Amino acid sequence: MKEITLGIIKPDAVEKKIIGKVISMIESTHLNFVEIKMVSLTKTTLEELYQEHTGKAFLPELIEFMASGPVLLLLLEGENAVNTLRSLCGDTNPDKALPGTIRRDCGEGLPKNAIHASDSQESAKREINLLFPEHQIV
Ligand code: CMP
C-alpha cells in the first residue's frame, strides 16, 4: 500500500556533515522525497513530537539533544514507506543495529542515533501534520 512517512536527520548527523550519506542511503530504496526542510525544533514542538515517551527517563536528554542544533525533516512516500524507512534505519540503538543500516553506519549511540522514523502510518500523519503544517493530511 502506498504510504507516507517522516524521517528526521538528527543534530548529530547534521553536525557531522553526513546528511548526503543518509539521503543517499534512502535514495537506494524505492521511496520518493516529497519535501525536505531544514529547521531548528523548539522544545515545545519536541514535547509534542515525542508525546508517546512522556514520563520516560530519557525524554529530557532526548529533547535537549534534538533542540541542540538544526535537523533535516524528510517527507517521504512510497509502497510500505513506514516499514521500508524503519528497516533501513535499523535498531534504535546503533550498537545493536545491523551493518548497512543508517543507525549503525551513521549513529553514535543513544540518543545520538542519526535519524528518527515514524513507527506507524498513524504516527506519520500526526508527525507530518505537526512538522509540515503546509501538508495537512487527513
Ligand atoms: P527515535 O526514533 O527518535 O525515537 C525516540 C528516541 O529516543 C530514539 O530515537 C532515541 O534517540 C532516543 N532514545 C531511546 N531510548 C533511549 C535511551 N535509553 N537513552 C537515551 N535516548 C534514547
TrEMBL record:
The keyword Nucleotide-binding applies. ATP binds at K10, F58, R86, T92, R103, N113. The active site is at H116 (pros-phosphohistidine intermediate). Residues 2-138 form the Nucleoside diphosphate kinase-like domain. SUPFAM superfamilies: Nucleoside diphosphate kinase, NDK. Its EC number is 2.7.4.6. Coiled coil: none annotated. Keywords: ATP-binding, Kinase, Magnesium, Metal-binding, Nucleotide metabolism, Nucleotide-binding, Transferase. PROSITE patterns: NDPK_LIKE. It is an enzyme of class 2 (transferase). One of its GO terms (biological process) is UTP biosynthetic process. GO terms for molecular function: ATP binding; metal ion binding; nucleoside diphosphate kinase activity. Belongs to the NDK family. PANTHER family: NUCLEOSIDE DIPHOSPHATE KINASE (PTHR46161), NUCLEOSIDE DIPHOSPHATE KINASE DDB_G0292928-RELATED (PTHR46161:SF3). This is Nucleoside diphosphate kinase. It comes from Psychracetigena formicireducens. The gene is ndk.
